[in-house]
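ok here's Phosphotransferase enzyme IIA component YpqE, seq below lol
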Amino acid sequence: MLGKLFKKKENQEIELFAPVDGEVIPLEEVPEPVFAEKMMGDGVAIKPSNGKVVSPVDGDIIQAFPTKHAVGIKACNGTEILIHIGLETVALDGDGFTIHVKEGDKVKKGDALVDVDLAVVGEKAASTVTPMLITNMNDIEDLNKQKLKQVKASEDVVITVK
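and the structure came out like this:
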């Protein structure tokens, strides 16, 4: 009984906003099986129109990869979000990325996470497509993706999660 009482906050519904401006691509169409087959979680992918990556939600930074290509955030309801900037970008070893957060930082929706030089990433990596995944799907009661084609970072809700 007490477990249910304390779990209520964990089950509240939250909105995840677009972390970048750009064109929304169904996750299943991302040309990388790890994302397309949802091996790391469900979510959306966005082909960015600029290099500003911002927090999609209020939360805590739980991962800031040394290669600067990905950031993990834990939202107030326990949802764990991974923003993976580009495809096969870990091999760039930080080239083209400027990270603005570190593990343990608190962020608000719209706070700068990473600046990306899309020209560098577009030339040296497989793609600039940026998946945003919910990595703890076993803890998620409900996930709804909005049917949007174009999004503005911090303005458009792309996923609601409960």
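fwiw Residues 1-8 have pLDDT under 50 and may be disordered. kinda neat tbh
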